[in-house]
Batch of 2 targets.
Target 1
Amino acid sequence: MRFWRRPAPRPLPVSQTEKLLFGGALRYDLPFTRHERPLLRMGFWAMARQFPAMAAVVGRAAWQVDPRALLTLLGAELGQGLTRAFGLVATNSALVALFAAGPTADRLRQALPAILAVSAVTGAGALLSAVSVGASGRLEPQVERVCTARFYAGAVRIELAALEDKDIHRTLAAGRFGTDSIRVMLGSSITVVNALIGLVASAGVLFLLHPLLVAMLVLIAAPKAWGAVFTARRRYASRQAWLEHRRAIGIISNEITREQPAAEIRVHGAGQLLVDAYTDMSITMEGEQRRLARAQATTQTVASALSGAAALAAYAVLWLLLTSGGMALAVAGTAVIAVRSAGASLTGLVTQVNRLFEETLYLKDLDGACELAERHALPTGGVALPRPLEEIRLENVSFTYPGAETPALHEVSLTIPQGKVIALVGRNGSGKSTLSKLVAGLYLPSDGTIRWNGVDVRAADRQELFDQVGLLGQDFPRWPMTAAANVHIGRSARPFDQSRVEKAVTEADADEVIAALPHGWQSLVMKGFERGTQLSGGQWQRLGSARARYRQAPLLIVDEPTAALDPDAEIEAFEALRSLADHGTTVLLITHRLAATANADHIYTLDHGRLIEQGTHSELMALEGGSYRRMYERQAAQFAITPHRAAVPRPDRHHDAAAPPAYG
Ligand SMILES: Nc1ncnc2c1ncn2[C@@H]1O[C@H](COP(=O)(O)OP(=O)(O)OP(=O)(O)O)[C@@H](O)[C@H]1O
């Protein structure tokens, strides 16, 4: 009975490496059983009912992209099925003529038209098969593109907060596998249709010969179908259960070849640990592969044995019919050919149904991921934002990250007026970046309201809001593209404009960066490709700044914009922000360099997600025991006294000059 049981999720072994590097099996917080797809609990028929819906997804996409190719394909497949049926009928006629009484020459003459018909339909079948290959070769990549693009288009529109949800994250990760399934699904569907038509043709001929033979055919098919579905479901369950493990292997092996950790990998000797981790985790996976292969072999053997027994019974029935005079020898010959032909169709069918069943599960995941992306998509439309931007006002804003226990922001109320440099300061984790993301409309407040020119961001047209924001984050994207494209992507909805790109680069003080590139604007700022080159951290920062400039948004959010800049460039960068504000841009500046905040129009100090102080630099410096003042003084003191303190005084050296404070 154990073969009939559905594959149950089993506890996964945890390798030593996983324990060392990830503190246990790397998986999402929720146990696998909660993720176990309802599909896994489905029986064969329930699953079979899913298939048309999934085939319809692929079929619709095929119809959309190339209806002619789809019709050609279906016509060619149907034609092949018909040629097979005609082939059997013609074979039967030829056999009847050959087994008839009379001289051999007469019998051959009688059989000749049927033999010619067999040759003709075989040739036609071969031609139709070639047409089918051509049409599917045209259709498959197009269908894959359309379905995958739907997935990507959905993924880029998901609300940022939804992406923080582990369930959503997992659904998207699972959906990603589905994009590989589309092409296979289309190919397999075609083969299944082909095999089904062949099977129906053979069954039809068998029915005409003797209805009992059709029943025998069903008996031969049933065990193979069961084996196929059972194996596919087991493989799918395994893939789901090992999803995170596979991702962990991917994450580790990716680090081995990435450029960024390359130095530490060599100097700290981290490479061996990573290679060992890869090997260790792959060995754990191999165990699972072995288990699957063994289980599949067993299932297949049982299915083949049952199917073989049914085939023997079919031949026994033929024997009985022959000996009892219920069937002529020629007809029995056709029946044998029909059973063999049906057997061949069946083998193709089983192999493909096996794949199809599995691919249907993945495609269902992809479909689920696309639906989920639509459900959590950024809303379109909404209240128009009056322009120009005059003020952003936060009232009692609290925000808790999805799944977090404590809020990252508590009842923050503040105002960001137009054309000012507004600084956000505070210790690490005090909520500065979170606040800036709420201002940018990337997250919606859990409580309280944010108003842009009086319009609540919850009701506002978010696309319009994004349109007015420029971002220059701590970890801004380093796009693997040309230098020009890296700037243009700041506002890619506008047609590419080289003069605007150059202007932004000049404003961001990045002319030198471009001038030093070996292929100028067309240099790829990524290594490993023709025209590729590597930028330094500071050069990247200038390019990122040029991108933010190119966007020309009324609100510019800059999060630690100078971390990689040299002192001269840093001073210029802060002066440039000042000048931007003087020309009407609102600048929300997040920085730990408090020398720069001295020139801000207004400073807000956050602590543990609460707004604890606000004012100008002078006002905050006048606050006895104030947090801003304490941070500022500590930073300034570093410049004043570090050279004396840092080095242990030695009799042979003396420090005669303290480095002057850089700012303030
Ligand atoms: N995506 C996230 N999911 C859950 N919690 C987060 C997330 N991002 C930040 N947090 C938490 O929210 C709090 C505020 O983080 P935030 O990044 O806003 O601080 P910050 O003031 O910008 O810090 P830093 O100066 O280090 O950049 C921290 O406790 C952090 O752990």
Note: Residues 475-552 form one domain.
Target 2
Amino acid sequence: MSLDVDIQATLGRFKLDAQLQAGQGATVIYGRSGSGKTSLINAIAGLSRPQSGRITLDEQVLFDAALGINVPVHLRRIGYVFQDARLFPHLNVADNLDFGTRYADASLGKNHRKTVIEMLGIGALMQRRPGALSGGEKQRVALGRALLTAPRLLLLDEPLAALDTQRKEEILPYFERLRAQGGPPMIYVTHDMSEIVRLADHLCVLRDGKSVAQGTAEDVLADPANMKLIGVQDAGALITGVVDHHASDGLSGIRLSAGMLFVPRMAVTVGTSVRIRIRAQDVILSLSEPKDMSSQNVLPAKITAIREGASSGFAIALSCGTDRLLARITARALAQMELKVGQNIWAVLKANAMPPNAIAPS
Ligand SMILES: Nc1ncnc2c1ncn2[C@@H]1O[C@H](COP(=O)(O)OP(=O)(O)OP(=O)(O)O)[C@@H](O)[C@H]1O
């Protein structure tokens, strides 16, 4: 699958001017409230019509302002899951599921329906109406309804935003499974970093209606130039490792290319590959190897870039074995430590700075 979007739209006083390239897997659109995320995916779905630009999905032109092409919503074969499920209240789950299949490829038939219902664990809910479902169940049905149309692409607009933490945990594994099992490519809107760690292959950052950064999630998050865009609270790189052991003192050891990382005990088996978000503000830099610290996590690193960030802070990009880290330090620390690109340094990471929602099987 390849999606190519380059559109411009004026919505009241808001101007959207976005470019997006997406392929297989999950592409997360990340941005603050009002940055244009919903407007962008509505245009991809065909729910709104941009003033200019072009949208192509694989070889098909879905929209081209100059050529006057605008394929109607129901012929785009794109599934859409809204934040608030939007099931038909007067129809039971079975009828809600079948509603979208009117335009779907009939040859997919009953087997596809059965697989989707089993995958989402909604078989027991078939006769219930949406009013008798929990928020998490509603979202599973909404996802099922979208999948039953055999979409070429799935658009998900903050599908977990209306759910509490427990319900989010109930639904996220379904998205992870879809991604792992080669389900339809997803464009997934969120401003929740933990969902990015769990799902994002690619990341596109929107700001004030403009796509200001995009690429693999690892590249976008490790780039010190993007620290301001992501926000100093959330900025941080993704690293990968393999669960090496679970210690009896409540920590799990993760083998990284540059050494061992200790995190609060993880509920995954030894040998599992994981992706971990290390927030820039949780990385401390030291010129010499710290030996008498409470932190268990001291990794050798090299400075690859130094970039001025927001509010007198600097973003320091580090290579750490084959991984990248991002650290945020003050201008004073930068001057006192006389940090330079190319310098070898030690990165200190607190185990408690890596809560379970910052770690996901990769
Ligand atoms: N039809 C419209 N008419 C006028 N303004 C609009 C219209 N649609 C969207 N906007 C404005 O465009 C801006 C972007 O809205 P959009 O819903 O795309 O943002 P978002 O990033 O999805 O926000 P959120 O995270 O809060 O859902 C907002 O300021 C919104 O008020």
Note: The radius of gyration is 22 Å.
